[in-house]
Amino acid sequence: MRRRVFDLIASMGGLVMVVVLLVAGGLLMWGSSYANSNVHNQLAQQEIFFPPKAAFAHAKPGTEITPSMIPTVSQYAGQQVLTGRQAEVYADDFIAVHLYEMPYHGVYAKISAAARAAKPGTPQAAKLTALEQTSFQGTTLRGLLLEAYGFSTFGEIAFWAGIAAFSLAFVMAVLVSLGFWHARRTPADAELLAAARERSLSAA
User: Fold this and answer.
1) Which end of the chain, C or N, has fewer beta carbons within 10 A?
2) What is the pLDDT of residues 85-121, one digit of tens each?
3) Rounded to an integer, what distance in angstroms lies between the CA atom of residue 88 and that of residue 148?
């Protein structure tokens, strides 16, 4: 095979890869933007806010703000939950803490079973029914927030994958340019393995 033909074929294949990487990068960036904007819009509609900064000055076990919340929850004090990271912190470091402090550690299945087993009409039954409702609401909200966090994580992965695709497309474009440049400089009658054959014959 002539060297110029090989260079042109390899360069054309590289050019196709550049186009594929650019399309993939564009789609990944679009997916990232779509995921993040939807997470933001859905969370904004819920109007969930972190406790104000003043509440963290009196953190005590068993209250709204516990000492364990200071490292993570306090950094978003007073802010509205609008991002995946905020949703994760609110779900795991705020709601989950309060659920754990409830009877049966806030596990809905256990509270529900206890409520069904309690004698109807008794104070214990009424208390367990109220706890059941609270656990259900807290567990549901926590699950929805973690789902938003999951989608935002996919969006972040898509963003960095898009950056990688564009970077590879740039590198490939440089290599393609060098391939076409080399093809123009190569004599039309040059063979691909001519130099190697000449060395082999001279060695023999």
Assistant:
1) C
2) 999 999 999 999 999 998 888 899 999 999 888 888 8
3) 8
